[in-house]
Amino acid sequence: MKIVLSPAKSIDTSNVPKCQGVTLPFFEKETRVLVKKLAKMNVKKIMDLMRISRDLAELNVQRFKQFEFPNCQTDEIIPAAFAFSGEVYKGLNVHSFSEDELNRANQSIRILSGLYGILKPLDLMTPYRLEMGTRWEISAKASSLYQFWGSKPTDVLKRELEKDEAIINLASAEYFKVIDQKRLKSPVITPVFKEFKDGQYKIVMMYAKHARGAMARYIVQQDIKNPEELKLYATDGYSYAENLSSEKEWVFVR
Questions:
Q1: pLDDT surpasses 70 at 73
Q2: Cβ contact 63:147 at 8 Å
Q3: Dist CA 104 CA 219 (whole Å)
Q4: Mapping DSSP to helix (H, G, I), strand (E, B) and coil, where does residue 11 land?
Q5: Which of these, 104, 123, 148, 247, could form a disulfide with 142 (CB 3.0-4.6 Å)?
Q6: DSSP character for 74?
Q7: Residue 7 belongs to what domain range?
Q8: Would you say the C-alpha torsion 72, 73, 77, 82 has a positive or negative sign?
Q9: CA–CA separation, 228 and 81 (whole Å)
Q10: Which residues, 6+ apart, have CB-to-CB distance to 156 below 8 Å?
Q11: pLDDT per residue over 223-243, tens digit each?
Q12: Rounded to 5 degrees, what angle do the CA atoms 47, 121, 19 make?
């Protein structure tokens, strides 16, 4: 199975262990194009583009002006799954992985990214902020990051997938939109996590994000190959709700 995740807005480069088997992103050339354009923007333009505070804009202006690629090794260039620190990555908890599990994760997990297109967990990356849904006139041919990346992230998945191998979509709708499902011949299953609240099951985003990462961790650590085994998932009190699920959307409740 291939597992697809979103990145996180929050990044923490402290307390990162030295990893064996680090890898490089698929699309350095395309990332360089974006970084070059972003590095020319001032604080006001970054604030408006990303709809963020002045403090965050100042941080990212500095990041893009000083941006370094993995052939320029610094302490700031670290494996992607260790850099991201949002709820998904708290649930994934790569710090708890053995070396074998890290290697397995690098084979099975793909992280969609506005700046890098698509990343492996052990791909070396520089801290950044650029959401896939950012409205940005990048060029005459690309009025959004979806248009800029085009089929490239889909091509990566299609090339890596074996016949009938399933994709477990644990990414947000904003990010998974960059994947052209019609071009993939593999089944796509989207787990959805809901909480029982006020007499009905609802998605609570903080919990749902954490659960996406926890399910990705479960798949890697249990070395699950058959998606049907996910219906037995019971981490953090969740259980599969067949009556709420469909062929492509599997609902887990607690």
A1: no
A2: no
A3: 10
A4: strand
A5: 148
A6: -
A7: 2-12+21-253
A8: positive
A9: 26
A10: 26, 110, 117, 118
A11: 999 999 999 999 999 999 999
A12: 115
Q: How many domains is the chain partitioned into structurally? A: 1
Distance of CA 39 to the CA centre of its chain: 23
pLDDT digits over 159-184, tens only?
Answer: 999 888 999 999 999 999 999 998 98
Query: In a 3-state reduction of DSSP, which class is residue 55?
Result: helix
- Count of C-beta atoms within a 10 Å radius of residue 163: 6
Tokens (6 digits) for 97 = 């992985």
The tens digit of pLDDT for each residue in 86-128 reads 999 999 999 999 999 999 999 999 999 999 999 999 999 999 9
Global confidence as pTM: 0.93
Calculate ∠ Cα 240-243-87, nearest 5°: 40
- What confidence tier does 75 reach under pLDDT thresholds 50, 70, 90? low
